[in-house]
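Hey,
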Amino acid sequence: MRAQFVLSEIGVGLRRNLTMTFAVIVSVALSLALFGGALLMREQVSVMKDFWYDKVNVSIFLCNKNDAASGDTCAKGAVTAQQREEIKTDLKKMDIVESVHYETADEAYKHYKDQYGDTAIASIITPDQMQESFRVKLKDPEKYQVVATAFAGRAGVHSVQDQRGILENLFNMMKGMNVAALCVMGLMLVIALMLIVNTVRVSAFSRRRETGIMRLVGASSFYIQMPFIMEAAVAGLLGGVVACVLLVVGRYFLIDAGLRLAESMPLVNFIGWDAVFAVLPFVVVIGLLMPSLAAAIALRKYLKV
């Protein structure tokens, strides 16, 4: 097979269907950008979970004298010194517990004033209304239920709370955005495939005389189909490159410059450039292979050789 002939045919095909080729490039670029963005969003959620779950604690709130009216485990009044010591001892015996910090009611009141001192309700809160608590750091935050089962309902324990629950709504929202991006990507991918098939059909029809002559002189099916497949591959590759540019620019604009999320949200551990560069090869490869396979399948119907 002469490479010069194949390259010339690719150039001819791209020039004849310039508008449709441009549409293919744009649709492939958008669909792959959404695909790459979905991968990066999933990585961002994973990074944030690892970062925040390592910092959250399980809080075991103890009964105070004001909880007696609530009944249940606090019906007998505030936690006793013996109950408090037993809870602490049992916590330290658990293999899943990394550390235990006891917070007094006065310390809880001070922390509350630091966080909500400007609110109206903070002015009527007194230290005796605050609950003592144990802040428990687990070796594996996913094993919260083990602690909850062991201490919820125990005498002297008002409630057991997992701080991960505060973050779950955020993570669920990000997962929802990820699913939405994948759905839009799927729609754009279908549009891109339809455009590729239509482009191949138009290209095959416009060159039916050349392909007929090649068939008469004994050219193989692969030799005849290769220029059409390469046209789709070139368009897909260009779309993949554009998608990579969009991902790099998007990450730079959102995190480093423009919105500067890294500066405005210092408590969030954003993904680095290594995660972006790890996704780019997949985007390029898919951009190259997807149109090629679509063109090869389409040629079976529209190019009888």
